[in-house]
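> example.struct
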């Protein structure tokens, strides 16, 4: 079977695809107890579309704006640091205090040599990819691993007349649709390929690099991946730069062959229900300053104006896990996330180009925890017979019953079409639920099928104070089942 290049496009094609205003999430307002959004006033008369965000060891917050400026926020005051950049979409405060910015044609190091608070040195770090003046050729990153290597991702072009395409998204060469690595000596390396619109990249506390990619052609729904060297991530056009591939050979590859070549995502992110246009993964390493979710991943979504969590699970040596909504009703599109030294979650925002549920065109907000213990799902792990769910506060034993739970499963269809519906969507018969002795954990027994996304609803649960969770659905990507010789957690 040869490839099917029938595409369905929305009003906006790009980071998250179809116009956000036509795909607003069905949920109402949700937020955990004890968490509050604070809005930061941005500089007056400045179009402050934040596309890069980081903080430093002094607690200052640094931002890059889509219109080419770098600012920092200290003592409730904004200071312009640099300008004249070409649509930066990522920023990193390096260990020495210098600022690395990913702009379209280049990764640039910016320094304040004379210490007057303004940049006076712009040094190229990497520019070996090709920029063809296409609006969609974004450069995302950088992030840095524990060995001092930098990583970034390069967006495919959209409707470029000279590009090799299998639809609207394409490449004219020069590593479009690639992830790249730059080592400590400044050596540039194409690192992985098959990416589409990889709008977020980040490094875990253990030094592993993860990236998000946005739904569209060859990406059935948005997803989060572990970045691995010399691996293919699903979008075929960048194969044109890989030795042994030609346009004819790529077009002759079957869907099955391409699917078998592709890396599995750590998690699939359900479209609209959780996200349309996810940004960078950001780990909570606040050691409890942000509440009970230490070690988990937080990601903002540009379209849904929300933040969701990713809960990792390692099964048979491979990452998989779950996504669950955390908080919504932000003022604009959440594309960047950053925890500062105080355990506050900063959210950089823009709605330019793709629209957002939040009504404002841009902005900066932060989420602060007041110390109140919320009642939410804390963790989920696969067992041999189902899942173990752990909650943030003791449960009401009477609410732990089959009537409090329901479940579904489905998979997504990989193809050149723009996104995928939920394929083979069916209800799952939950066979049993059992409250464990710790009072906060439940074992849920159900039949398991590898290769599915499993949605578990726990609407009927209450904690010992009678509270209901603010978010009662979790979505687990079941790439692998537990081997018989692996003990349940």
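> example.seq
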């Amino acid at each position: 079977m040869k490839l099917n290049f029938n595409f369905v496009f929305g009003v906006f094609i790009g980071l998250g695809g179809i116009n956000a205003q036509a795909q607003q999430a069905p949920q109402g307002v949700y937020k955990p107890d004890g968490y509050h959004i604070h809005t930061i006033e941005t500089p007056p008369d400045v179009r402050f579309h934040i596309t890069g965000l980081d903080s430093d060891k002094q607690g200052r917050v640094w931002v890059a704006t889509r219109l080419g400026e770098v600012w920092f926020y200290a003592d409730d005051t904004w200071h312009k640091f640099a300008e004249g950049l070409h649509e930066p979409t990522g920023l990193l405060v390096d260990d020495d205090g210098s600022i690395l910015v990913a702009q379209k044609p280049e990764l640039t190091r910016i320094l304040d040599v004379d210490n007057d608070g303004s940049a006076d040195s712009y040094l190229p770090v990497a520019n070996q990819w090709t920029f063809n003046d296409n609006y969609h050729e974004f450069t995302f990153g950088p992030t840095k691993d524990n060995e001092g290597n930098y990583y970034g991702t390069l967006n495919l072009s959209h409707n470029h007349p000279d590009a090799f395409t299998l639809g609207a998204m394409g490449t004219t060469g020069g590593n479009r649709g690639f992830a790249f690595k730059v080592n400590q000596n400044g050596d540039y390396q194409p690192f992985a390929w098959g990416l589409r619109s990889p709008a977020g990249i980040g490094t875990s506390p253990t030094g592993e690099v993860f990236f998000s990619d946005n739904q569209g052609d060859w990406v059935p729904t948005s997803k989060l991946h572990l970045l691995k060297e010399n691996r293919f991530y699903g979008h075929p056009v960048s194969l044109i730069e890989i030795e042994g591939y030609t346009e004819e050979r790529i077009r002759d590859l079957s869907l099955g062959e391409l699917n078998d070549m592709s890396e599995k995502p750590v998690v699939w992110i359900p479209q609209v229900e959780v996200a349309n246009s996810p940004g960078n993964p950001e780990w909570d390493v606040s050691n409890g300053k942000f509440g009970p979710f230490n070690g988990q991943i937080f990601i903002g979504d540009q379209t849904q104006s929300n933040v969701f969590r990713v809960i990792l699970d390692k099964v048979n040596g491979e990452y998989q896990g779950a996504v669950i909504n955390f908080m919504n009703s932000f003022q604009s599109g959440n594309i960047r996330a950053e925890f500062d030294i105080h355990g506050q979650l900063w959210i950089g925002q823009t709605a330019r180009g793709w629209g957002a549920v939040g009504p404002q065109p841009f902005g900066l907000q932060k989420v602060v925890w007041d110390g109140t213990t919320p009642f939410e799902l804390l963790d989920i792990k696969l067992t041999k017979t189902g899942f173990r769910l752990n909650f943030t506060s003791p449960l009401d034993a009477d609410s732990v019953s089959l009537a409090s739970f329901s479940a579904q499963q489905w998979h997504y269809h990989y193809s050149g079409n723009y996104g995928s519906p939920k394929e083979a969507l069916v209800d799952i018969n939950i066979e049993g639920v059992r409250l464990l002795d710790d009072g906060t954990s439940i074992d849920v027994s159900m039949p398991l099928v590898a290769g599915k996304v499993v949605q578990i609803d726990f609407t009927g649960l209450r904690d010992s104070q009678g509270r209901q969770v603010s978010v009662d659905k979790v979505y687990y990507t079941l790439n692998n089942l537990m081997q018989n010789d692996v003990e349940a957690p």
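> remarks
Residues 255-261 form the longest helix (7 residues).
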